[in-house]
Specification:
Elements: H1 6-39, E1 51-61, E2 66-71, E3 74-82, E4 93-102, E5 111-112, E6 128-130, H2 137-142, E7 146-149, H3 153-168, H4 172-181, E8 188-202, E9 205-221, H5 228-232, E10 235-237, H6 244-251
Antiparallel strand pairs: 1-9, 1-10, 2-3, 3-4, 4-5, 4-6, 7-8, 8-9
Helix pairs in contact: 3-4, 4-6
């Protein structure tokens, strides 16, 4: 066996020592990096808002109310509406007004939640399933009847504050603030679809609605504790957006 010269042996020894030092440095660096990553607290990621879609069906007769419990203190209602100029002793019923009532605890004051978030505010709108403002019965039966509403008292109070501010004073800073704050309020929607009807009078110009059958499609934040029947039919869905949001963006242009 041929022996290496002394100079070559020294070179190999130095090379091995250098390689071991480099390996040790890389090993220590990797341990340090791992420890730092393990100790670092991850940035909190806000949970995305989630909603569910469900529905119920119903029937209502002339001059009678309808109510369906949604859950978490919310109730969908059709409230009989009478002609404003009719004799109180002999009221003339002209349809219904859609409401979403909130009553969390017995003894609390009941509030109506849909009026604050459903446009328009000063004219006939989706809440009007009646002829109180001169529209015809065929018109109201074909109109869109989707209402929007907050889901609890705090959100209702905040929405009312924002809407009242922009209704009566629409300065640019207030519009900007409303456009910022309003999307943060969790929102639900209820769309009434008419399935059947029985009308009185001439079919081409009916004088009253005798009966209605309908389906109401609900989209509510998952925080709402639905009734068992509604929860059984619930499926994930995109959350509704207030019709006020695009209006506010338009006002800023």
């Amino acid at each position: 066996m041929q022996l290496l010269p002394t100079s070559d042996l020294r070179f190999l020894t130095r090379f091995k020592l250098l390689a071991m030092k480099i390996f040790a440095v890389l090993f220590l660096f990797s341990i340090s990096t791992f420890a730092q990553n393990a100790d670092r607290t991850p940035e909190p990621v806000p949970a995305p808002s989630s909603c569910v879609r469900t529905y119920f069906t119903g029937n209502v007769k002339h001059a009678l109310p309808f109510a369906e419990t949604i859950g978490s203190g919310l109730t969908y209602r059709l409230v009989p509406t009478q002609l404003k100029a009719s004799d109180p002793s002999n009221p003339k019923f002209i349809g219904w007004t859609i409401e979403v009532a909130y009553l969390k605890n017995r003894g609390d004051m009941e509030r109506e939640f849909s009026e604050v978030m459903t446009l328009p505010y000063r004219h006939v709108g989706p809440r009007d399933l009646n002829t109180n403002n001169g529209q015809s019965i065929p018109d109201i039966l074909e109109a869109d009847h989707t209402v929007y509403f907050p889901i609890d008292l705090l959100d209702f109070a905040e929405a009312t504050k924002i809407v009242n501010r922009i209704l009566w004073r629409s300065s640019p800073p207030e519009v900007q603030e409303a456009a910022r704050e309003l999307p943060r309020i969790p929102l639900a929607s209820a769309k009434l679809n008419i399935l059947g009807r029985q009308l009185a009078g001439d079919p081409s110009a009916p004088t009253s609605i005798q009966t209605l059958s309908f389906k109401v499609e609900l989209i509510v934040p998952s925080a709402v504790k639905l009734t068992p029947e509604l929860a059984r039919k619930a499926k994930p869905a995109p959350c509704p957006v207030s019709p006020l949001i695009p209006l506010l963006h338009e006002m800023q242009k």
